[in-house]
Design a protein that fits this description.
Helix content: 25-40%
Order of helices and strands: HHEEHHHHHHHEHEHEEHHH
Shape: globular
InterPro entries: Cyt_c-like_dom, Cyt_c-like_dom_sf, Cytochrome_c_Peroxidase/MauG, Di-haem_cyt_c_peroxidsae, MauG/Cytc_peroxidase
Radius of gyration: 27 Å
CATH architecture of the largest domain: Orthogonal Bundle
Distance between the termini: 100 Å
Bound molecules: heme C
Keywords: Heme, Iron, Metal-binding, Oxidoreductase, Periplasm, Peroxidase, Signal
Number of strands: 6
Pfam families: CCP_MauG
Organism: Moraxella macacae 0408225
Protein name: Cytochrome-c peroxidase
CATH topology of the largest domain: Cytochrome Bc1 Complex, Chain D, domain 2
């Protein structure tokens, strides 16, 4: 009895030790498992981004296999179209070798910061989405359009999915990321493709935040006096008005992750581009109605409004505006100044008086009101916009000068 009791007394702490050890092992296994699961999610995410990158650069997405997303959004050229075709970069040539779109290809860099397309009740304006008219709510929906657009990649879902499925690497990657059944349904497989492309577009490759301006904010670069004047003017409340539209509504001046757009829609009175009309792809009386061209919008008060573009990489992604009407950043700044400066009457690119707006209604005149600019101030704003160039494109600025 005694022995037994004694033994029992000993057994309790032993049992306790065993139980503790078991629970420790369990906890350990649980943690390992959790971190494995986290790693797996991470691996999956990386996998998806890599798949997206391959798809972004894959010409098989176009009918005649002549172009990929990167043909028009060249990663070496600020994710814009650098091709010099008959359209002189104003608009992009399609896969059929003769069709042109009717809008200037914007940079796809920093596009991920545009919120879902929505109406902002507080400010009474439409905000966000992708494309100049916001007609794609987000990047996934955006990526589904160019491959099927007859003026762009001109293909169809079934053909694209067939080609992807036939590629053993894609075949396996799609199954791994989207399930073994993914190839059973064309729509699902096509959607998976757009999902992977969007994942790639959300990586830091598209938004490295490493321009001179970003380095200046980190104390790694000193702005020249001209660049600094441009910065002051850009953000100033009573001189110029750029920040009214080209600054996130949520950010403060000199915010670390400023994308230089509030993603709101405005008509700033951009004139028609005679070079676009001369291409003969659109009717002679063609008017780009902007936001009114969004399939869900029929309110005439939205006519002529376009999504405010980011100014990141703007110095290396000429020409400018939805129709590429201006070739030079300096012209853009002078164009804004004409609203406030009665002496500024001539468009330096044409040598003729500024042409009237493509759409004369709904111009955001209140927001465009500012003090007139001097030559130095114009230069300063241009110099500041050049500092918004990602590091890997800085050599393009030098080439230009
Ligand atoms: C033939 C040239 C061309 C090809 C190919 C092309 N794009 Fe575009 N992209 C454009 C044009 C032009 C626009 C603007 C069209 C509009 O606003 O109506 C645009 C707009 C965009 C935008 C919106 C940017 C913004 O700020 O609103 C993104 C993102 C984008 N493209 C990504 C892609 C992806 C992803 C692919 C491949 C699946 C692709 N593009 C293929 C010419 C092209
Ligand atoms: C009322 C809002 C608003 C204000 C104020 C404004 N912008 Fe813009 N900006 C826009 C919109 C909208 C567009 C596109 C218009 C279009 O294509 O029809 C644009 C286009 C541009 C472009 C061409 C970008 C490209 O990729 O094509 C530049 C450069 C630019 N703005 C710089 C400035 C500067 C510099 C200022 C201050 C002097 C300024 N903006 C003030 C809304 C504004």
């Amino acid at each position: 009895m005694l022995i037994l009791e004694h033994g029992m007394q000993n057994a309790e702490p032993k049992l306790f030790t065993i139980l503790t050890s078991i629970s420790l092992v369990l906890i350990f296994l649980l943690l390992v498992n959790k971190s494995l699961a986290q790693n797996q999610t991470l691996v999956k995410q990386n996998d998806k981004e890599q798949l997206g990158e391959q798809l972004f650069n894959d010409k098989r997405l176009s009918k005649n296999q002549t172009m990929s997303c990167s043909t028009c959004h060249d990663p070496a050229l600020g994710f814009a179209d650098g091709r010099t075709t008959a359209a002189k970069k104003v608009v992009s040539l399609g896969d059929d070798g003769h069709s042109f779109g009717n809008r200037n290809t914007p940079t796809a860099s920093y596009a991920k910061f545009s919120p879902l397309f929505h109406f902002d009740d507080k400010n009474g304006v439409f905000v966000g989405g992708q494309f100049w008219d916001g007609r794609a709510a987000d990047l996934t929906s955006q990526a589904s359009q160019p491959p099927l657009n007859p003026l762009e990649m001109g293909s169809d879902k079934a053909l694209i999915v067939k080609r992807l499925q036939a590629d053993s690497n894609y075949n396996a990657a799609f199954k791994r990321l989207y399930g073994n059944d993914i190839w059973h349904n064309t729509d699902a497989a096509y959607h998976a493709m757009t999902d992977a492309i969007a994942a790639f577009e959300k990586t830091a490759v598209f938004a490295p935040f490493d321009s001179k301006y970003d380095r200046y904010l980190k104390g790694e670069y000193e702005l020249t006096p001209l660049e600094d004047l441009g910065r002051t003017l850009f953000f100033s409340n009573n001189n110029v008005n750029c920040h009214t539209c080209h600054k996130l509504t949520t950010s403060k001046e000199d915010d670390k992750f400023e994308v230089f757009s509030n993603h709101q829609f405005h008509n700033i009175g951009v004139p028609q581009n005679p070079n676009l009309l001369a291409l003969g792809q659109v009717e002679a009386d063609f008017v780009d109605t902007g936001l009114l061209a969004h399939p869900d919008i029929n309110d005439l008060a939205q006519k002529g409004k376009f999504k405010t573009p980011t100014l990141r990489n703007v110095a290396v992604t000429a020409p400018y505006m939805h129709n590429g009407v201006f070739k030079d950043l300096r012209t853009v700044v002078l164009f804004y100044d004409k609203y406030n400066n009665p002496d500024n009457t001539i468009n330096p690119e044409t040598g003729e008086p500024w042409a009237g707006p493509e759409v004369a209604d709904n111009i955001s005149l209140d927001e465009l009101k500012a003090q007139k600019l001097t030559d130095r101030k114009v230069d300063a704003l241009v110099a500041f916009m050049k500092t918004l160039t990602d590091k890997r494109y800085e050599h393009l600025l030098e080439q230009e000068n």
